[in-house]
TrEMBL record:
InterPro entries from the UniProt entry: Glyco_hydro/deAcase_b/a-brl (IPR011330), NODB_dom (IPR002509), Polysacc_deacetylase_ArnD (IPR050248)
SUPFAM superfamilies reported in the protein's UniProt record: Glycoside hydrolase/deacetylase
Gene Ontology cellular component annotations, sorted alphabetically: plasma membrane; side of membrane
Protein name: chitin deacetylase
Catalytic reaction list: [(1->4)-N-acetyl-beta-D-glucosaminyl](n) + n H2O = chitosan + n acetate
GO biological process: cell wall organization; chitin catabolic process; fungal-type cell wall biogenesis; polysaccharide catabolic process
Keyword annotations: Carbohydrate metabolism, Cell membrane, Cell wall, Cell wall biogenesis/degradation, Chitin degradation, Cobalt, Glycoprotein, GPI-anchor, Hydrolase, Lipoprotein, Membrane, Metal-binding, Polysaccharide degradation, Secreted, Signal
Domain NodB homology: 204-398
Disordered, as annotated region: 46-70, 430-461
Length: 485
């Protein structure tokens, strides 16, 4: 059956407006996790937890055949981590492959060699439940940590926008009507000049990224990326970082960029300002504790950002990165995250990706795509299909991490090595404020700007069509189906 992804997704969207967070669902511990206590309480009953990481559910790696019936083959030189099923077998019911060890084990004191000014890795992370908020839940905002981080907002003009209803468009007609004024990306694709959404002036360049890890199959992806000498940006979830610290270290030490993707993966526009600070702050702290570095970039889950979320993020020293929408409103979302729940087929997701490459080929800028390393299915889609399709394309696409494809050196990706006075905070405006709309004056995100958020931020908004409505509600079905696994 030939599926039209947008048609299918539209129908699903209409039927599923509820918000459920798929990250609440956990699976068996990964080989390299050193935080068994963090996962033991929530491991799914059907999973086999293994501290050695060598056992999994019903099948072993031998139960998964390598892709031989696919439109695109793995690059010829790939020898490890390239075992993946035929496209049609990447599905919600596929057997769980054994998780793989990290590509390299690093010891405390080791330093990344691919950029200068990097601090050595801290002493190995030891999970202590008392040190962290509950995983995958909104952190308590009364903690001393959150109250301290709130002080980072002092002197910043955080727009006084009420939280959205649930971060989706269907539930919130009032805020949809005001989406342009509040710069709400979710409903209409409104961006500001401080947002990173493309690789400027680099046609045929894919700013490659993966969201929601570090997770059980991230190591498989890392083996593939490292063998192909592909570097990517990982938008890491704090709750996953403390669970899989050695996978996070493997990402970072392998030369991939590390960015913040919140603690519990909520729709940030729905939260209070203190809750947003807590979500970003705890993830930043987890990454700092494990890697010794503090990211200067973040991605809002579901791309759910408005001027309030932007201002808070920038005040905390993190530049928002979303994914590309074309001028005609095509959102570069592979919907790979809906394969595990059976909401979208692997064929439909890959067809969607081929459409993305087709659209990307026409752009004057490079592009950014939403993909995930959270699930086995999404990793197999990446290593077996989407990444090879881009590499084998004629002409081929160039794959780079998002910071790099934006001209941001590794040193600027982390506070500790960042000597750039204009990144992440652009203080180049005539009134000393933060210019987000490119009109030369500080605006919604400016330090003590006197201009109102509504008037100044309107100028830089970019209207696209509302395909973004797909971005979220489908998770209800995904979560329900994954729970049933
Ligand atoms: C911003 O304004 C607040 C109160 O209006 C003031 O306390 C603070 O010092 C100001 N910050 C700067 C950087 O001017
Ligand atoms: C762009 O994406 C849309 C939606 O997926 C698709 O219908 C269209 O064919 C794509 N354009 C190209 C040139 O591939
Ligand atoms: C500082 O960062 C900005 C924004 O990314 C960039 O345009 C500029 O080239 C950087 N400057 C230096 C010296 O790295
Ligand atoms: C912004 O830049 C100006 C000029 O470089 C400088 O005088 C001012 O102190 C800066 N303001 C802030 C808040 O960093
Ligand atoms: C619409 O957005 C503007 C700018 O953010 C804000 O000032 C205004 O209060 C909003 N209006 C409504 C009705 O929410």
């Amino acid at each position: 059956m030939k599926l039209q992804p947008f048609t299918v997704l539209l129908a699903i969207t209409a039927a599923n407006a509820t918000k459920i967070n798929p990250l609440h669902i956990k699976r068996q511990a990964t080989a390299s996790s050193s935080v068994s206590t963090a996962t033991s309480a929530t491991v799914a009953a059907s999973s086999v937890s293994s501290s050695s990481g060598t056992s999994a559910t019903s099948s072993s790696t031998t139960g998964i055949s390598t892709g031989t019936t696919t439109a695109v083959g793995a690059p010829a030189s790939a020898t490890w981590g390239t075992s993946y099923p035929p496209l049609s077998q990447i599905s919600s019911g596929m057997p769980s492959e054994v998780t793989q060890a990290v590509t390299t084990t690093y010891t405390a004191g080791a330093s990344p060699t691919y950029y200068s000014g990097a601090d050595p890795l801290p002493t190995p992370f030891v999970f202590n439940a008392a040190d962290w908020p509950a995983q995958d839940k909104l952190p308590d905002t009364s903690s001393s940590e959150v109250q301290e981080w709130m002080e980072e907002l002092d002197g910043w003009d955080i727009p006084d926008l009420s939280p959205t209803v649930d971060g989706t468009c269907v539930s919130d007609p009032a805020n949809v009507a005001n989406a342009s004024a509040r710069g709400w990306w979710t409903c209409g694709g409104y961006t500001r000049d401080t947002d990173i959404t493309v690789c400027p002036g680099k046609p045929m360049t894919w700013g490659t990224s993966f969201d929601d890890g570090p997770a059980f199959y991230t190591t498989k992806l890392l083996h593939f990326l490292n063998e192909q000498n592909i570097k990517a940006t990982f938008f890491d979830v704090g709750s996953r970082c403390i669970e899989n610290p050695n996978v996070l270290i493997d990402e970072y030490m392998s030369g991939h960029e590390i960015a913040v993707h919140t603690w519990s993966h909520p729709h940030l526009t729905t939260l209070t300002t203190e809750q947003i600070v807590a979500e970003l702050g705890w993830t930043r702290k987890a990454i700092k504790t494990i890697l010794g570095v503090t990211p200067t970039t973040m991605r809002p889950p579901y791309g759910d950002i408005d001027d309030r979320v932007r201002a808070i993020s920038l005040a905390m020293g993190m530049v928002p990165i979303i994914w590309t929408r074309t001028p005609s409103g095509v959102s570069f979302d592979t919907f790979d995250w809906e394969i595990p729940g059976g909401v979208v087929t692997s064929e439909a997701s890959f067809s969607q990706f081929e459409g993305i490459l087709g659209n990307a080929s026409t752009l004057e800028d490079g592009f950014i795509v939403l993909e995930h390393d959270l699930y086995e299915q999404t990793v197999d889609m990446a290593i077996g299909y989407t990444l090879p399709a881009a590499l084998n394309h004629n002409p081929p696409f160039t794959l780079e991490p998002i910071g790099q494809c934006n001209g941001i050196p590794y040193t600027n990706m982390y506070v500790e090595s960042n000597l750039n006075t204009s990144f992440p905070i652009a203080n180049g405006t005539s009134d000393g404020g933060i210019d987000t709309d490119g009109d030369g004056t500080g605006d919604a995100k400016s330090k003590n700007s006197t201009s109102s958020a509504s008037t100044s931020s309107n100028g830089g908004s970019t209207q696209h069509t509302s395909l973004s409505i797909f971005a979220m509600p489908l998770l209800a079905t995904l979560a329900a189906l994954v729970v049933a696994l």
